[in-house]
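Q: What does the assembled structure look like for these inputs?
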Amino acid sequence: MKIILIGASGTIGKKIAETIGKDHELVRVGSKSGDFRVDIGSGASIEKLFKEVGPFDTLISAAGEGHFGPLKTMKEADFRKGLDSKLMGQINLVLTGQHYIRPQGSFTLTAGVLADDPVRLGANLSAVNSALEAFGRAAAIELENGVRINVVSPGVVEDSPHYFPYFPGHVPVTMDRVVAAYMKSAFGAQTGQVYKVV
Amino acid sequence: MKIILIGASGTIGKKIAETIGKDHELVRVGSKSGDFRVDIGSGASIEKLFKEVGPFDTLISAAGEGHFGPLKTMKEADFRKGLDSKLMGQINLVLTGQHYIRPQGSFTLTAGVLADDPVRLGANLSAVNSALEAFGRAAAIELENGVRINVVSPGVVEDSPHYFPYFPGHVPVTMDRVVAAYMKSAFGAQTGQVYKVV
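A:
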């Protein structure tokens, strides 16, 4: 199975790569490293990636940035960081990737716990994550040829302790459980699901 | 109470105006009509609106457009229609309006049922609506001086029969119940809530 992993060198991506790299043809994609490079904030860069990589079976995205900062001083330009990168970037992976994915393939995108459990400074990522979850539900009913889509929505992960102070009372989730959710999405049979790992 | 109503001549907005126009100082705002005009897709236009209208107690937004069309042919430019108008537009009303709203004031934004109950052609609006719902939950915990925010998320409304064919099995909701949700948000005491009218 040919699997494209976007964000392959990130905190979550590298754990996914370790788990699936042995048994599959894994195409590691990153913004600064990997078999291929992509700027997820650029539709043209995403189009170029798919043209270069060619047909594939599975895409897993653990990529994209958002803005984390106080609402009181937030500007449109701040808010658009998350819209352009984590949201539009991952959605472009589906809008463009649907024309390159093989029948019965799957997309897995990454949202996050802020979608329904907000913290201070997190308004942009709450909106972005919730939008991704809803997009997954909606795209699932239109994708053709048996192509599936799910969204993994993890809590703050144990490997990102620098985030802990911003998530009071959020219990960090183990990387094993997070990786398991991506495996369920990529190798299971469900579609239109949001796998919340909290 | 000085109430700014964005989208005052729309299907939902005009019913809200009928209900609250008698008892309050209502500032009707539209893209093409009203006491003031705004292009909700432009942050500069929104900034200008607040400067002209001045301090206010309550903002109700029933405005913003999204893209409705098949996923198979959807492009980034299509998807950005909803991001720029219904999503970023309504969020700009809060990001900018928070600096003009009086203490104990409130914001009410409009999402929609596609957030969690998708239909064909609706992927953009599913994402946009869900993002708005999450933004409301998140902004509520950061707004200061007792300012509240809620989101009304209506099903397809009885006054928009041209949408019915695109919402098979969705039972149209009465305008009275939809308007009631805006009243609960604007004149009640809750914050961070999503009022689903389905």
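The mean pLDDT of chain A is 98.
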